[in-house]
Amino acid sequence: MSGSGRLAGRVAIVTGAGRGLGRSHARYLASQGAAVVVNDRGGDVHGRGDDASPAELVARAIRADGGQAVASGHDVADWEQAAELVQLAVDSFGALHVLVNNAGILRDKTLANMAESDWDDVLRVHLKGHAAPSRHAMAYWRQQARAGTPLAASVVHTTSIAAFSGNFGQANYTAAKSAVLGLSRVMALEGAKIGVRSNAVSPSARTRITVSRPDHEPDDITEWNDNDPLDPANVSPLIGWLAEEKCPANAQVFHTYGNRVIVVSMPSIVHDLRTDGRWTPEALDEALPSRLLELTELGAFLDA
Predict the structure, then answer these.
(1) Number of Cβ atoms within 10 Å of the Cβ of 123
(2) Are 132 and 79 in contact (CB under 8 A)?
(3) Which position among 28, 140, 173, 257 bears the catalytic label?
(4) Is the previous residue joined to 54 through a cis bond, with omega within 30 degrees of 0?
(5) What pTM value is reported for the model?
(6) How far apart are CA 203 and CA 267, in angstroms?
(7) Helices 116-123 and 171-191 meet at what angle, rounded to 10?
(8) Quick one: 16 exposed, middle or buried, by C-beta within 10 A (0-12, 13-18, 19+)?
(9) Count of CB atoms within 10 A of residue 7's CB?
(10) What is the pLDDT of residue 303?
(11) 257 catalytic per annotation
């Protein structure tokens, strides 16, 4: 496996790779020849607890299939541990070419009922947990570029359809996933000079984060089928494509659902309305409602 494939010779870190989407991404990247650092602290869907076994099991499965993988239990939202995670990839496989930021948790509450810790912890894992590994990966790549090493590195961030349209009871999650879009855009700008691309993917898939019932863990589901639009494996080929050395995509946002890949333009000017002199409330009454309805219909299209 490791000697061939579209990602042969590439070294990748996948965060939150012990279950769900991250596990699917790690195994797919490995199947395409990448050496993979499988990162996961092993906590529950709310971010509580530590368990090294999910990451170890995924790394072991990759090696059993003939691939290269090591497990990591680093906390990606800890600045120093994120640096250690990047160093682990370099020490284990000699380089780093791909960072897939995927780790996340949920603490759903309406804003009026949300505890400060629920806000802080979700922002910490989703946003800082993207930013900290990205910061240290970028520092490594900048060092490589200054040393004259040609780069074709790729960062893939995980956002959500909640970032486009919001989601009831998820002010913390939606804010974090919206911020991830800004982070990805800045990294694309800063990385362009040294050969680093940055893109964001909004995945529709059945995982512990999207399906949480006390009597059932979605990760226990083992019988997927090719017609299931929520199989995490539907998303992973796009992640693999974005990770490729010659992939042209940069500063893009993608939404996936089943067999659909939707390229999302954010931000974009949808309407540029002008009036003679200064706007009045009456003029806004006439100009805006029908046009705002068009945006509502676009959101419904993305949800479909």
Answers:
(1) 17
(2) yes
(3) 173
(4) no
(5) 0.88
(6) 19
(7) 30
(8) buried
(9) 25
(10) 53
(11) no
